[in-house]
Amino acid sequence: ALLQALKQGLPADNKAGVAVAAPAVYLAQIQAELAGSAIDVAAQDVSQHEQGAFTGENSAAMLKEFGVRYALVGHSERRQYHGETDAVVALKAQAALAKGITPIVCVGETLQEREAGQTEVVVKRQLAAVIHQVGLCVSELVVAYEPVWAIGTGKTASPEQAQEVHAVLRAQLAAATEKAGRVPLLYGGSMNAVNAAQLLAQADIDGGLVGGAALKAADFLTIIAAAQ
Length: 228
Ligand SMILES: O=C(CO)COP(=O)(O)O
Hints:
- By secondary structure, this protein is an alpha/beta fold.
- It has one domain: TIM Barrel.
- It is built from ten helices and seven strands.
- Strands 1-2-3-4-5-6-7 form a seven-stranded parallel β-sheet.
- Helix 7 (about 120-135) runs parallel beside helix 8.
- The longest helix is centred in the middle third of the chain and has 16 residues, at about 120-135.
- It starts with a helix and ends with a helix.
- The structure holds 1,3-dihydroxyacetonephosphate.
């Protein structure tokens, strides 16, 4: 029902890239529902391994069979609950790129790290691992800044706080590629229909990685409208 409402509500002149990131078991259904629409399919994770005996993992090649165009890598919940290190996240980004899937690399600091003044150090370390791994493919990444304290908490980074970190990430990308301006930098963490426009108005915030607010089609469509 959500996908139908999104498809019907997306204006014909929509210019924002829109993708739905779902758990792997729903990807086939989502691919079928979204066929012929302007909405892309994304996975929430991807295996770091190209192939082999890794029971339970979904390789990039397998995801590709279901029309997956993007894969989140390094979402804070994967880092926190599944022990994903910067090195593993970097391998996942590389595995996705190798099969033509665009990784959406998630970075972000915890509340403790922010309060200790470590925000910049943490996000730069997380992104550096991926930049180092993917080499010349840096310009093919999407990067999402998701402060861990803002995910699902209703606490949003202020537009200024988010922009400050996005500027750091943009500069880091610019040191690695001439095409840094083309790398979409998404903000995630309690983005909603009310605060999206202000966040998206910031110079280096190109889009959103939306959780809770995307579960209501009307709210998600309002955010998409703000991203034009
Ligand atoms: O990353 C996110 C979901 O995984 C963001 O979630 P919220 O928008 O609900 O904070």
